[in-house]
Design a protein that fits this description.
The chain has 344 residues and is an all-alpha fold. Helix content is 81%, strand content 0%. The protein contains 13 helices and no strands. The chain is elongated, with a radius of gyration of 37 Å.
């Protein structure tokens, strides 16, 4: 019985000690949490009324977390101190507060991002610009490749389409004249943006659904065919009538006359206005961004909205300038080459 009583007494003593320890620890932790919340509330109120020094003093009084952690009061207080210090042009102190958070919570994303931003701000401007270029260039080049695809497709299709429309308008067959006149009248008289909207958003209403790329190619191809049709028609009509009469005297048909005599001379004269249209085409491709087509302008816009960094817009402008400069140079060379015989 004595041994049994001793065991019971020891068990009761251990339970009493555990309860006493719990009563001593948990109220203290709870009180610390309440005190931290009160300090944060007072500091926030001080910030609201512009008492920055008082708010900083209160934030500093928030204790470090105990072994059971805290509810984020310590992290919030130190990050607020870091932001206030940075806004007051004291990056060294701001870094020390963020590092205090990292020392307790090494995986804290907020403090890590703050330190990364702080490191970036301390770099010289040229280095930050270089880093921006490296970060934005891949997406811009991807969008630029889509822009070039649209430009090259339109440059191939629109002269052919414009030629047929121009021949239809000067034809002696009234149906061809009427159809060509309507195409020119409609596609030159309405905005390209409206045409793209109708092709991409309007055609599904009658059961025709196109991808953004297909809608962009069709819209640009038809629109520029209509514009080039008038340029080509004017070029054809600028050729002296004696050329046609000479071809007839040689026994050529109308088709042979156009193919062998008139049209070859026409394209020599219309290269400058056609080149001007294609330069405008490079910039007009930006309109296809409105139908969810990711080309150069849309890629730049997406990254600007994500980073609010004007460098990406400057880079997009430089790429557009490079494109227009290269095309201008190429068309000048072509114009010089095809006009070499007329300069003799």
């Amino acid at each position: 019985m004595t041994i049994k009583n001793n065991k019971l007494w020891k068990s009761g003593a251990l339970a009493s000690l555990f309860l006493l320890f719990a009563l001593l620890i948990f109220p203290a932790a709870s009180t610390a949490s309440v005190d931290a919340d009160a300090l944060l509330k007072q500091a926030s109120n001080a910030l609201t009324v512009g008492k920055i020094d008082q708010a900083c003093t209160l934030f500093k009084q928030v204790p470090a977390p105990g072994p059971n952690g805290d509810d984020g009061q310590y992290v919030y207080s130190r990050m607020q101190l870091a932001r206030i210090s940075y806004s007051m042009k004291d990056p060294a102190k701001a870094r020390s507060y963020a590092e205090q958070v990292i020392s307790v919570y090494p995986d804290n994303v907020e403090a890590q991002n703050f330190l990364t931003s702080l490191d970036r701000e301390t770099k010289p401007q040229w280095q930050k610009t270089l880093e921006d270029c490296k970060r934005f260039m891949p997406n811009l080049l991807k969008g630029a490749s889509m822009t070039l695809l649209l430009v090259f497709f339109t440059m191939i299709v629109s002269p052919i389409g414009g030629l047929f429309i121009a021949l239809g308008k000067i034809s002696r067959m009234q149906p061809f004249v009427s159809i060509s006149w309507f195409i020119i009248w409609f596609f030159r008289g309405t905005p390209l943006l409206l045409q793209l909207f109708f092709i991409y958003y309007g055609l599904p209403a009658i059961g025709i659904t196109l991808s953004p790329l297909a809608a962009a190619l069709i819209g640009l191809g038809i629109n520029y065919s209509a514009y080039l049709a008038e340029i080509i028609r004017a070029g054809i009509e600028s050729i002296d009538d004696g050329q046609t009469e000479a071809a007839k005297a040689l026994g050529m048909t109308y088709g042979q006359t156009m193919r062998r005599v008139i049209i070859p001379q026409t394209y020599k004269r219309i290269i400058p206005p056609i080149a001007n249209e294609f330069i405008a085409l490079i910039k007009d491709t930006a309109l296809v961004s409105t139908i969810a087509m990711v080309e150069l302008m849309r890629a730049a816009d997406q990254m600007f909205n994500a980073y609010f960094n004007v460098t990406v817009l400057v880079m997009a402008a430089v790429i557009y300038l490079i494109f227009t400069s290269v095309f201008t140079f190429l068309f000048e060379k072509i114009e010089y080459k095809v006009g070499v015989y007329e300069r003799r």
